[in-house]
């Protein structure tokens, strides 16, 4: 006999309809690009990340995949530079799309 929790919330993964995951991921990458354009904010990880983001002749990973794969690095970076707007968007992407 199975029991269901009365507190169960709607499954957010049922549908991504009307959620602009790709657009929000693109916007987050714009925040990242602006931060990294400031001298002294890049490091070896973000240089490596830029190469991954550029892809190769065969494939280029999409922004949402890269964010999902490196979500903790994004969080640490935006927290370090006190970018609350980017952190808010990152949280939204994590909750809605990852």
Q: What topology emerges from the helices and strands here?
A:
Layout: H1 21-36, H2 44-54, H3 63-69, H4 71-80, H5 84-97
Helix pairs in contact: 1-5, 4-5
Keywords:
mainly alpha, 98 residues, 0% strand
What does this structure look like?
The chain has 98 residues and is an all-alpha fold. It has a domain at 44-55 and 62-98. The chain has five helices and no strands. The longest helix has 16 residues, at 21-36. The protein is globular and about 40 Å long. The protein starts with 20 loop residues before the first helix and ends with a helix. The relative contact order is 0.18.
Report helical residue fraction: 55-70%
| Main sheet summary | none
Q: What characteristic shape results from the CA principal axes?
A: globular
Low-confidence segments, given as residue ranges, are none
Give me the secondary-structure category.
Answer: mainly alpha
């Amino acid at each position: 006999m199975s029991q269901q929790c009365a507190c169960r919330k709607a499954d957010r993964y049922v549908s991504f309809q009307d959620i602009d995951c790709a657009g929000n991921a693109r916007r987050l990458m714009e925040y990242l690009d602006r931060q990294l354009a400031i001298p002294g904010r890049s490091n070896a990880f973000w240089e490596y990340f830029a190469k991954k983001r550029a892809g190769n002749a065969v494939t280029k990973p999409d922004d949402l995949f890269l964010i999902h794969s490196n979500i903790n690095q994004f969080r640490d970076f935006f927290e370090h530079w006190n970018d609350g707007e980017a952190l808010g968007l990152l949280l939204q992407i994590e909750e809605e799309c990852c």
